[in-house]
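Slide 14.
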Amino acid sequence: MATEATTRRRKHWGWGWEDAQPSRADLEAAAPGIRERLGFGGDEIEEPVPLEQIELPEPRLEPPASLAEIVSADRHDRVSHAYGRAYRDLVRAFRGRIENPPDLVAHPRDEADVEALLAWCSESGAAAIPYGGGTSVVGGVEPRVGDPYSGAVTIDLGALDRVLEVDETSRAARIQAGTFGPSLEDQLRPHGLTLRHFPQSFEFSTLGGWIATRAGGHFATLHTHIDDLVESVRAITPSGEWESRRLPGSGAGPSPDRMLIGSEGTLGVITEAWVRLQQRPRWKASCGVAFDEFAAGAAAVRELSQSGLHPANCRLLDADESALTHAGPPGKALLVLGFESAHHPVDEPMRTALDVAREHGGDPGEVRSKAPEEPGRLRDNPPPDGGGSEDPVGAWRHAFLAAPYLRDTFVAVGVLSDTFETAITWDRFADFHAEVMETARRAVAEVSGGPVKLSCRFTHVYPDGPAPYYTILAPARRGGEVEQWDEIKSAAADAVIACGGTITHHHAVGRDHRPWYDRQRPDAFAEALRAAKRALDPSATLNPGVLVDPA
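Slide 15: predicted structure.
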């Protein structure tokens, strides 16, 4: 089915649509405000290298006649599929540095096309890079494959974009992997159902991408990852089909689904999945709670995460993060708290949660509630808020959804802007947070030689620990932004691993996180993963360099 995501052309270098890219006049108008707000950036406006001026090597591969109809060497196709959407990706594409373009981009129409593409890639010694929405921020879709390969073919699953079957009795649906978030929800809406999985990349990411990367959604507690919503998965591997039995649960050995979830395109190309659905929420309530200290807010969040209340939103912003998003009172940490339900009012759990927050020194603002509506008329509202842009929760939500677009503007006005995230248990959080903040602040200051904006928020919380998410803003070193960020990222990642955290909570591993992932996972597990890859992908065709190097 034709959707906006498949008929409207994306920017070749950044986030969003080509026809909605800010003009030079827009950038010049925005620059003074950015400079005033941050204390740096905006002295000189730069514009991206036009698509037609980017130098590309000639494709090293030519598809067989049987595949020519679905394989493209188009300039926009090759450039736009060369990178994901990490800061280092945006900067390189902005400057026309397309270092590892795919030789060809394939657009399979069905599983038979996927099978034929994998067979051709294996026979010709080419790497095959599965591609959903291309929103990876860890180098997961960059065809950085090395000399052993005759070329690289990116396999874009965007044409596999339908909800194939809805089981309203079991409240589940069979959905093709290339379905983008908005289209997925549009197709479920007539049934009064929703997946309710809204990562920040929701607009431009796909179900298959969420599964392959173990994506985190908008729920801050309980159903935090796509893992919790997957019933079964189907994939095409170079060695044949892989499809698990559809069940609500099973104790029959290691789960085949769990092996594919998070496999990042290294074991097979995910083509469809059965996923667990929910009724669309009818009752919502939200409230912003201010704290004098981030630590006091963290103590409140810990109690909430262990209370069994399961708030849909329980995000804690430190004072600097709150200030950046214009969300809370100046100098205060802010807890963004929300409840929602399809079955009952949520006033009582909100009252209980606010009592907990007050016990830790929290100062709640106004509770904003959403009354029931006709279920069939409800529209998506990710993440749960219940308020407008004039309230703290609404202000945070607006900033959350606008962040990927703003980052493109930051590149143009000379602001380094990126993030890293992790997870740690509550007993180690205070020391961990202090060490990571100090290390990152020192690294940014040394590399950037100027003012630093470093902030933290909790994106998800569990009974045994939070998922801290750190944002860095600094003056960009024009022309050397990639090297600048790599130094900062390396120092921060070293601190995260040394202090016992995970290199990623929901951004996946890709190629960029590999050095630290190698230190995190057990060596025996790496050998087991290599063995699985040998069995499923004997020619090491699929996404080489991600997770493990093939033997």
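Speaker note: The domain at 4-156 is CATH 3.30.43.10 (Uridine Diphospho-n-acetylenolpyruvylglucosamine Reductase; domain 2).
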